[in-house]
Amino acid sequence: MVFLSGKVDTIITGLIATDKCTVLKKITDRMEFDFITQNAIIYVLIAWVAIFVTAKALKVERFGFTLKPYSLTYKNYKVQDALTRLLGRTRRGVRVFADVSVIAGFLMMGYVFYFLLLNLSNFFVEPTEFAELTVLMPGITLTSVDAILWFLLSIPIVLVIHEGAHGIVGVLEKINIKNGGFAIFIALFAGFVEPDEEQFSKAKKISRLRLIGAGPTSNVIFAFALGGILLTNPLFAMGLAGVPGAEPIVEWFYETPEDGVLVLSVIDGGGAQQAGIQANDVIIKINDVDIKSAMDLQKNPLTPGDAVNVTVLRDGSQIVFPVTIMPASEDPERGLIGIMRNNQLPQPVFNFIDWNLDTPSGMWFSMFLLWLWMISFFIGLINMLPLPILDGGKFIHTIIDGRISEKNLNGAMMAVYAVSFIVFGLNIGLSYYKSGWISI
What we know:
The chain is an alpha+beta fold and about 450 residues long. The chain has helices at about 20-30, 35, 40-60, 80-125, 145-170, 195-200, 205-230, 235-240, 245-255, 270-275, 295-300, 360-380, 390-400, 405-435, and strands spanning about 5, 10, 15-20, 65-70, 70-75, 135, 175-185, 190-195, 255, 260-265, 280-285, 290, 305-315, 315-325, 325, 335, 340, 345-350.
């Protein structure tokens, strides 16, 4: 899951990651460099100091930048001209997109509430299904050098798409865009377009809804387009395991192994070795849960200290072993059977792109696209959460505006904000209560 704060004129990257997207965390963990991960926040601060000193030396204020000890902001006052030229070539398509954005805004708002409320319910009813969320901040929760690079490369693309969509729909609806630009706040990033406030407030309600909904909708559409390409990538199937309701997509577009998980070796002193599990055994069941692939192990996490019955195939016979789950060395709260296993990935049905996952460059590029997809998709969704700093807050305000008195409007919006903040805050708070800050 990812979170971004923003409104009609601003989008700030404070993201949320869910532990359900295990492929992102596990592959990132394998690719990280210890010298960075152990001192990530220090390196981020050093990088910011270098940026600040360089910008000061170059006197970037001459080029429209505003430099402060904690931020670097750039504004371009010719955005309107560029958007007008672009609109002249794409007016019909932008009109359709603008109309779709209103409908999509309602759908995305409903989905994000559904996800957050369901997640809260899972914490108390189905704890194993609870998706732990964390704020993604370089140097703090983003500690892998690769994860930080994927984040930094993805964010500008997502910002340009989001704010460009706000801007071009604004021009379509005859709402002037005074300026646009970006800002860096040490480790957080923002993009913005600033519409003419008077024109915006006097515009028709449907025009305002189109402008507001355009940003999140553009991110989700881009994510769907990117997802269409990634359907040919085995890693994408594992990434989809973290998206509620995405299981049918994996079943339709991927062929998953049906013969269990092959044990390559057992960990000395681990639960599997003590129970009698051997290399070349094939795990087909843990308690009453059928295990057909490594993805089934990821979807059914184990708790250290628990005793489980592990069913294996050995020489054509099924044998049940009582195994005590051991803690992972890097995360004592994550349980392990105590084996080295075959990590065979699901194979895409449409396999016409060679992603070269057996090479470092192929794996790195695939992970970058997976991060870009994840950030764009969830930024679009979470931006429609009704909070004052998000597009969703402005969306709800526009809908209610004019239907009730100004006093009642303010009261209603405060109630909406309070409910949204509680639901969102509880998801973050319970995640911290369960596992502390999740780092990637």
